[in-house]
Amino acid sequence: MNSKVIAIVVIGLVVIGAGVFLLTQNNATPATDESMDAAGIEESMLTPTATDSSQSGEMDQAVKEFTVNGDNFTFDLKEIKVKKGDTVRIVFNNTEGTHDLVLDEFDVATKMLQAGGTETVEFVADQTGEFEYYCSVGSHRQMGMKGTLIVE
Length: 152
Ligand SMILES: [Cu+2]
What we know:
Layout: H1 2-28, H2 31-52, E1 63-71, E2 74-75, E3 79-82, E4 87-94, E5 102-103, E6 108-109, E7 118-124, E8 129-134, E9 146-151
Parallel strand pairs: 1-4, 3-9
Antiparallel strand pairs: 1-2, 4-7, 5-6, 8-9
């Protein structure tokens, strides 16, 4: 019984000691500088691929912005036309009911928004064709709550 108590106390002291040691270590060494350096290297290594997918802040990439208002049960913008390679930004305003805006082929989906909710999604139109964006709530899509993204 007694040895158990002693063991628990010893373990407790070791844990506390280790904790204090780690804390003082963190404060003593300039760990933030090191981690920032590591992040910097990672970022510069990632930059080429990021540019390829044109998600970075490159100025030569066109950003086409569209506003889509949703209500029961339609989108006011039925057609969005862009060029392949464009960065497409869709500002989805939900004005009535509960809706979202989903575009499967580009992995785009807003959260389910209540009336008055707004969400902006952005993606690169990296494939040509016609794609349907729609509301995934209930049977809204079947009821006509959809539109067409045309990438030329
Ligand atoms: Cu809907």
